[in-house]
Amino acid sequence: MTLVVIGVGLIGGSFALALRRAGRVAKVIGVGRSAANLQRAVELGVIDEASHSAAEAVRHADVVLVATPVGQMGRVFAEIAPYLPPHCVVTDGGSTKSDVVALMRSHLPAHLAGCVPAHPIAGSDLSGAAAAQYGLYDNRRIVVTPLPETRPDAALLVRELWQACGARVYEMSAAEHDAVFATVSHLPHLLAFAYVDTIVAKADAARCFDFAATGFRDFTRIAGSHPEMWRDIALANRDALLVELDAFQATLAALRQELVAGDAEAMTTRFERARAARQQWQQHFNRGNA
Ligand SMILES: NC(=O)c1ccc[n+]([C@@H]2O[C@H](COP(=O)([O-])OP(=O)(O)OC[C@H]3O[C@@H](n4cnc5c(N)ncnc54)[C@H](O)[C@@H]3O)[C@@H](O)[C@H]2O)c1
Ligand SMILES: O=C(O)C(=O)C[C@]1(C(=O)O)C=C[C@@H](O)C=C1
């Protein structure tokens, strides 16, 4: 099987590595916008060949994974549309799904039966081919949001490929997916960027950063993530994200009021409720990834 990965970074590169180790791909062709990144991907054995033309690369593909920032996916789909072999399955790794589904519908109308939108719920704040790693998807979840037009064999192949990467596959509607991930992924990234940016604006920012320690590190790790990727995710999932942002602002306003009023009881109740939920989640997450 020939796999073409368009966007050879953490997500696309780790998919290629896992499938190669599982013996599921004979050849991996990588396509990207940075020659240096593609060169690194070849050196690291993430891909067999680099191509600077997505149109040229997909002519020989059995499966195409688009793993660029979601803001790039429209132009990628448009570029490959005329050159996709009829049997070729097109999937993606984007963090948002309603926009990707809409882009597939507008740019790949003749190929919808081969389209299987997907999102691996695994990653990090690292990016580029050098960040690709074996085991990224071990015991992690993958959400697929197939279209009504998706051929069963195309959906099955994508499921099997992710399972071969060690992942567990779940199906949702694109809208449900985007609402859930606005809550547990997109909002926390927005908040982490906003919080660090608030410090940057302070006159004593250097002194604050100098003394910041493990609490700061743990709360802000994701503010080290790729800005373009997160800008695209926020814009693509704007409606769901605004709902979450409003809910969070309401909680913050209530907490602020409790602080102003010195309402220790209300604050204790809130913190205890949050701690219990966090502890429960941690146990659930540990069990799921054991
Ligand atoms: N990082 C995560 O934790 C994570 C997790 C799940 C899903 N995702 C999603 O996966 C996708 C890739 O994320 P990543 O973390 O691998 O990013 P990355 O920056 O590591 O890799 C993306 C690659 O795409 C390339 N690229 C950008 N525009 C391109 C274009 N027009 N044509 C070809 N290549 C192009 C970049 O040069 C880069 O090498 C994004 O859509 C992101 O939302 C990321
Ligand atoms: O671990 C991280 O740094 C991540 O941000 C991974 C994370 C997440 O929010 O959990 C980020 C984006 C995804 O689409 C899926 C996973």
Automatic annotation (TrEMBL):
InterPro entries: 6-PGluconate_DH-like_C_sf (IPR008927), NAD(P)-bd_dom_sf (IPR036291), PDH_C (IPR046825), PDH_N (IPR046826), Preph/Arog_dehydrog (IPR050812), Prephen_DH (IPR003099). Keywords: Oxidoreductase. Gene3D superfamilies: 6-phosphogluconate dehydrogenase C-terminal like domain, NAD(P)-binding Rossmann-like Domain. This is Prephenate dehydrogenase/arogenate dehydrogenase family protein. The keyword Nucleotide-binding does not apply. It comes from the Bacteria. Residues 1-289 form the Prephenate/arogenate dehydrogenase domain. The keyword Cytoplasm does not apply. PANTHER family: PREPHENATE DEHYDROGENASE, PREPHENATE DEHYDROGENASE [NADP(+)]. PROSITE patterns: PDH_ADH. It holds the Pfam family PDH_C.
